[in-house]
UniProtKB/TrEMBL annotation:
Enzyme class: transferase
Lineage: Bacteria, Pseudomonadati, Pseudomonadota, Alphaproteobacteria, Hyphomicrobiales
Gene: pgsA
Organism, as annotated: Methylopila henanensis
Keyword Phosphoprotein: no
EC number per UniProt: 2.7.8.5
PANTHER family found in the cross-reference section: CDP-DIACYLGLYCEROL--GLYCEROL-3-PHOSPHATE 3-PHOSPHATIDYLTRANSFERASE 1, CHLOROPLASTIC (PTHR14269:SF62), CDP-DIACYLGLYCEROL--GLYCEROL-3-PHOSPHATE 3-PHOSPHATIDYLTRANSFERASE-RELATED (PTHR14269)
Chief location of this protein within or outside the cell: membrane
InterPro entries per record: CDP-alcohol_PTase-I, CDP-OH_P_trans, CDP-OH_PTrfase_TM_dom, CDP_ALCOHOL_P_TRANSF_CS, Phosphatidylglycerol_P_synth
Gene3D superfamilies found in the cross-reference section: 1.20.120.1760
Protein name: CDP-diacylglycerol--glycerol-3-phosphate 3-phosphatidyltransferase
Length: 213
């Protein structure tokens, strides 16, 4: 006998309704925007491999569209009451994939080099640390909400990466584009460190809790 069949008719109908709503949200516009942001990652990376200025600008344009969907998917999901567990899972993953892949490629083609490599390392290490912490806390059924400062951090990262994607191609039109991008990268790295410490401190008490026997 299934758990659902053991429920009273009203509860069973509510469970079925919730499952049907979740299935519908899989193809909702907010989730489709998130899927698109994930799909954009290999295309942006491919444009950076080409290195020609025209492909740099293609990478910038596609990245800007993907960054805009980062705002739109959450906004539309709340406005249309289409929030779902799938969307809440994929949205931060899409952000991390987009930023991390771009940072790695920008380091590979030497747009980010020298001391600025440390800013990229800080950002990448923080994302791995927080993802691992979230996974551990999820097993304990502890939720770590995204703070407003963490959202500002993500915005700063996206702007910094956008400038760096233009890089040398942007410098030919407006000198200093790469320098501005590197400055914003350091700024976002500082925010990344602070928010990472904030998350770690919030989760540490659960990690160090004595097991209940």
């Amino acid at each position: 006998m299934s758990p659902e069949s053991q429920l009273d008719p009203v509860s069973s109908a509510a469970v079925r309704q919730g499952r049907n709503a979740s299935r519908l949200h899989v193809t909702s516009l907010p989730n489709l925007l998130t899927y698109g942001r994930i799909a954009a990652v290999p295309v942006v990376v491919g444009c950076l491999y080409a290195e020609a200025d025209i492909y740099r600008w293609c990478a910038v344009g596609l990245f800007m569209v993907a960054a805009i969907t980062d705002f739109l998917d959450g906004y539309l999901a709340r406005a249309w009451a289409q929030q779902s567990p799938l969307g809440r899972m994929l949205d931060p993953i899409a952000d991390k994939l987009l930023v991390s892949a771009c940072l790695l490629m920008l380091c590979a083609i030497n747009t980010i080099e020298g001391w600025s490599l440390w800013a990229a390392v800080v950002i990448l290490c923080r994302e791995v640390l927080v993802s691992g912490l979230r996974e551990f806390l999820a097993e304990l059924r502890v939720s770590v909400p995204v703070t407003r400062l963490a959202k500002y951090k993500t915005t700063a990262q996206l702007i910094a990466v956008g400038f760096l994607l233009a890089g040398p191609a942007g410098d030919k039109i407006l000198p200093g584009v790469t320098a501005v991008g590197l400055g914003l990268l350091w700024f976002s790295a500082i925010l990344t460190l602070y928010t990472g410490y904030d998350y770690f401190r919030a989760g540490l008490r659960h990690v160090l809790e004595e097991p209940v026997e």
